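Pipeline run #58 for the internal structure catalog. This entry was flagged by the ingest filter as a single-chain record with no existing model, so it goes straight to prediction. Upstream metadata was stripped on purpose; only the residue string is passed forward. Reviewer on rotation: M.T. Logging verbosity set to normal.
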Amino acid sequence: MIRPLRPVFQLSALLLLAQSTAGLSQERYTSSQLSCARFRETVDASIATMIAGQTRREETGEDGIMVLMSRDTAQGLTLEAWFDSLTVFRASADGRLVPETDGVIGGRFRGFLAPLGHYTGRQVPFIPPEVAEVVHLAVALNDLMPELAPHALNPGSTWSDSAGLSVKRLADSTAGGTRLHRYQLLRAIPDRPMPAPDSTGIDVVQGEDHRGVFVWDPAVGLLRWDREITIRTLIPPGKDIRQAVRAKVVQHVVLQRLAPCGP
């Protein structure tokens, strides 16, 4: 008697399906991941401004520990964050400026974090003028978390949108017996006219390139995010500008999850 092949085929198909979907994960931000979570963020930036054949170089830096609290509401995931510690500096040929940051410590950032990482701010703390001259902390939460793909990715596969963002899943890694997911995030924003950012009334042309890698633990969420951001700015000659001004900012940013805060 010949054995029917169908059950064997079904079992093989199930095994192949299980192998092909092993490690797939639908990454999402949840309130449990960010319930009293602590992250250390370090930022090192170099700024080169060119005008009339002369180049002025500056460096800025930031090192702080931020605490995040979140909860689920009818409107989505609310996020409340504050700096537990913070140091900033700006250095140039004129000297080094290290403003006091006590006026920022504990000040609340509040907003909404979408499951895929888009942040909508609702409130920012008071930023002392001397700190604002060094770093732009008012947007500290706008891109704190990397954006995620809207569906699960196999290692080696990529998702991209029409706005220049792409997310690629890299080979997994392990740490302490835990399987970690790694992703590469790229974003290219071409040079485009930007409205005047302040009362000067001077429009600029600006473009950006973002390149980074983040590590995700399926149990706790984001563990680490390393990235480089390049911002190109051009102020063309105009009524009040005799010669074009070009600036290039290169930022290296590292976000590292720390042990959670206490109850």
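catalog note: The two ends are 68 Å apart (CA to CA).
catalog note: The longest strand covers residues 54-73.
status: ready for reviewer M.T.
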